[in-house]
Description:
- Strand 20 (720-721) and strand 21 form a beta hairpin.
- The chain is built from 24 helices and 21 strands.
- By secondary structure, the protein is α+β, with helices and mostly antiparallel strands.
- 47% of the residues are buried.
Amino acid sequence: THIFFLRTVRRNQMAPASSATTSVRKGHELKLDSLFPYLVRINALPGFRNDTKLTVRQFSHGQSNPTYLLTQISSDGGKLSWVLRKKPPGKLLPSAHQIEREFLILSALYKTRVPVPVVYHLCSDSSIIGTPFYVMEYVQGRIFKDPALKELNPKERYAIYQSMIQVVADLHSVDIDGVGLSKLRKKPKPNKRVMSYAERQLRTWSRQYESSRTGTGDETKEMDKLTKTLNESLPDDSAMFSEALIHGDFRIDNLIFHPREPRVLAVLDWELSTIGHPLADVAYLCMPYYIPSAPGTPIRGLLGVNVRKLGIPDKAQLLRSYINNANTPALEDILAHFHYHMALSFFRIAAIGQGVYKRSKQGNASSARANMFGAFVELTAQIGNSVMEDAAEAARGIPAECEGVDGLGSPGSFLPRFKFSKKFHKLRSELLGFMQEHIYPNERVLHRQHKELTEKTGSRWVVPPIFEKLKAVAKKRGLWNLFLTKSKHHKLDTGLTNVEYSVLCEILGRSVWFAPEICNCSAPDTGNMEVLAMYGTKQQQDRWLTPLMEGKIRSCFAMTEPRVASSDATNIQTTITPTSDGHYVINGHKWWTSGAMDPRCKLCILMGRVVKGSSSSSSSSSASSQYRQQSMILVPMDAEGITIKRPLHVFGYDDAPHGHAEVIFNNVKVPKENMLVGEGKGFEIAQGRLGPGRIHHCMRLIGMAERALEMMVHRVQLRTTFKVPIAMHGGIEQAIALSRIEIDQCRLLTMQAAEMIDRVGNKLARQQVAMIKVAAPSMATKVIDRAIQAFGGMGVCQDTFLAYMWVGARTLRLADGPDEVHMKTIAKLEQRIQRAKL
């Protein structure tokens, strides 16, 4: 059902208004003798003249509220048009055809990103034309009745679908209270159980269907069966109570597209809009995948169509695009019970179809083809039953094929020819599904919860509850402590090689601020746990490693100092002084102590110089003694004498609740048992810690770059400049090509370094590890920068994650050793190799 439309007859051409309208049908006439003076009197329509004849035609498409094209043609040939939408005549079903609701929602949404026509006036006085009505802007553009979009080419089809997905995600992101639509929220009744949106819909449309029955017998069996199944299998968990502003009838033929661009100009028919579950719209959008096309009828579907060949996303890709969208709603478990919502959508459309069919028998339907809806009701109910049967066999809330980024998995479409175990393939498949089901949909939840907690407590250093909730899921699914790869130093590993974990690490890097911690695989905890696993005593492991591996506490690593160039670790000035009573006293000034701001941080691994006696500096200058000056020691964060001076911002980001701190250690006293391995072993420990850690950093960067490239390609398909899609401009094509080349180069280089660590150890893989630490941050910074350029102003603001990803990538050119230090290592080793050849 539509407000207005212009039907596409050929690609990028619009049909004239006359082909989209007909003469006003019998029983739908407007009382122009009262309407015309009324419109003159209210003076609300721009350009409306009191001395020019008003002509009226009725839009031919639509099954619900009658919609009319009002036109005035002046003596000089100028034409102005408006659209009038009213309730149908005759006896109506309860709560149906709510013109007033449409006007309220359109008025509110005009201030948001959701494209809607301008509404000019609402008239609740039925005496004017017989029913309430409102008048709005007449928007000209393309409307597509067939979801196969046969009149377009594959690139255009892709862009049209992505634009449609963008709009529904924007709609679900609307601040309901902020735009003044909180009155749509269903108020709980005293002493009454609160029902989910799905349950309310089931009850409402069951009543509507019963009141619209035109007979009994075989034609009602499918509908009766679906009603019974939906009632018996109604979920009642918290996922059913997700809330967003929804359209209620979101389909491709309810959208007006730009005449030439793949851009939605207006979303139509808001009669069923309310505050409800966003899956109601997503399910409606997915209905064509379940419906075949029926020539000679209004039924248009994609069942049996090779959609990928046409350039149309399949159902799994559509769901991925929705949840990966930058404006995905801040709702938890967004895709839980997808099949139920899908079947409920078919139930609802069948009930609506039954109402249309009954009105056709009564003679007051809006469309002349309404009598065809009898067979449509049986078909849609049958599909709904089929969906519920499929749901009984599904183990998860989203389709089983919904894994990976491109349907074949991430990274890329194919893995390089390294050796991978069966366990790895199982974990990779599990992780891809976990990212789609729990990570991407909850990225906005994380930020929303942190914002709410910050406002409530007045502190940025608070932990959103979504962390602990999803950690429990990750543990249950075996996606926990994946970073502990095979090692001769301990038996705590997960059985994966560094090469295998590197692939998983890339997947986690696609949501680097969220996914690694959920799987207990985030820095600096990973490096600290590796140190404790490799070098810690049993006592140290029991006290610190066990709670870290269980995710009960977090930790930080204190090395960098503000007063010296800490890229040369021999410059470290923090002192660790032994005492006669079996302790060490620590004095020093550290900064960029990542993780120290986190309220869960209980342990600091600190690097400093052991000094004995009154001397605070070593007199020895030999290379060997320099590298035996530094030690690593375990410092409880609640020890007396530790002062968090301030949090440090990274390009303006505070990275809360993790954070980076400037820390003062003033006579901090810890037991001698807290020393790791022994005095002077700091460099030895660091070398064992940094090899795998740098693999992790680089693969996460590759994951970030992959996601940025994905966002860039998506964006340039949807925007048009100088009359062609941005994707067709040579500079953009070059940016995409270079990004693909650079990402794959870095991936192979990093996996080669991981394979060398597995085969020959950290020491012999030093050059390869140094190479990736230079290459990966530089690559990711360039790729993300190109994506930002493609997004324009949106790329540098908070509406996407691109700015934050760029900051992270750029920072890693300094963190864990600046580029210059790693290039110095590469050059030295290369010269040594070349000299050996002579």
